[in-house]
Amino acid sequence: MGGKYQAYPGYKDSGVELLNGIPSHWNVMQLKHSVDGCINGIWGSEPEGDENDTIVLRVADFDRSKLSLKNEGYTYRKIEPKEKINRALKRGDLLLEKSGGGEKTLVGQVVLFDRDFEAVTSNFVAKMSPKDGFDSRYLNYVFSRFYDDRINYCSIKQNTGIQNLDSELYLSEKIGFPTNAEQLKIANFLDHETARIDTLIEKQQQLIKLLKEKRQAVISHAVTKGLNPNAKMRDSGVEWLGEVPEHWIVAGFKKYLNKIVDYRGKTPEKHDSGIFLVTARNIKNGKINYEASQEFISERDYENVMSRGKPKFGDVLFTTEAPLGEVASVDREDIALAQRIIKFDGKLDILNNSYLKYLIMSDQFQQSLMMFASGSTALGIKAERLVYLRSLIPPLNEQLDIVEHIERMTRKVDNLIVKAAGAIEIIHERRTALISAAVTGKIDVRDWQPPNG
């Protein structure tokens, strides 16, 4: 890493393939020599509201981007005193994800326990306590470098869909270590620089949040108030709609729809290839996301699975549960539709499908969905309850103008969101590269001082 950072005056061969040269005064050793064991956690039993109720930290509590813990949402479990003896956490301990991961996420993330409350780790997380002479913040950055460079990959074993990290094998990996005093300087440097970088990332994330709110506001206003600010308004007679243009029709949701196709029924047999099966997970923000979930059915099963009605280009797909209320336009016809999806099609020359999609996406319609949804675990709505919902129907030419307006405006917003997301990716890559350069000795920050003010 060039630029404003200098290299060390001298280097030596580390003897480690992925490390190459290290500063001449650093010592190569296995990771296991920097921590006092790797102690597995415990899940305990249901809390009873007494002194044994203890916070049990899970992988879900990891703030991966900041290598720390989230600030809320902790789980309490009953942990007996004898079970806490070796598992109780203290400030400066490191938490290692030993089981979990996902299709695109490796197991093996490490975060720093920088809190003072009583806690233990769950059975999927292990505790590592730094030995004397090793700074916990520095070690946290070292493990971050190992994770980001996927060095932990060789220590992962796959079992029934869950990744398990062989901690003994992982901790046998080698890296160069400076003295404790130098570790502290590097950790102080990285704390300052990563905090500054995180602030830039948070600003971009806030921008994306505001842009998404603007996008939603454009849709909600256009489909409930129209494009003419001078249009005469009237009371819709529907509480969640409020005033609407006086020439618009307020009607039952099903009145101007052709046949409603509900794909409830037996789950079809899945295959590794064949006809793409669109599930509720694929439907998001008005589009079918073919990357979100990839399931297939055989061609021989297609006619039976789609016997209630095949999708046509432009049809509107609606999720009835998990999640509720997402919509998408059918953009290809060589697909099958899974359970928890209903297909809508507006009546010709009365209700445009794209307008219908945006109407469903509006805040007002989504609010009405919540009013008629049911379910204790996941909210959902049955097809027969759609009769309680309402539609707003402008003249067809006005619907087309509204669709054109929404798509033009949201396209601009989406482009800005893509740019902001790209900026976050670049900034995060710089953060990762800076950590790696500092903990592998590619840059010398021994003389670094925090800026005044």
From TrEMBL:
Entry-linked InterPro entries: Restrct_endonuc_typeI_TRD, Restrct_endonuc_typeI_TRD_sf, Type-I_RE_S_subunit
Domain (Type I restriction modification DNA specificity) ranges: 271-413
Keyword field: DNA-binding, Restriction system
DNA-binding in keyword set: yes
Domain of life: Bacteria
GO BP: any one term: DNA restriction-modification system
Single GO MF annotation: DNA binding
Stated family: Belongs to the type-I restriction system S methylase family.
Listed name of the protein: Type I restriction enzyme, S subunit
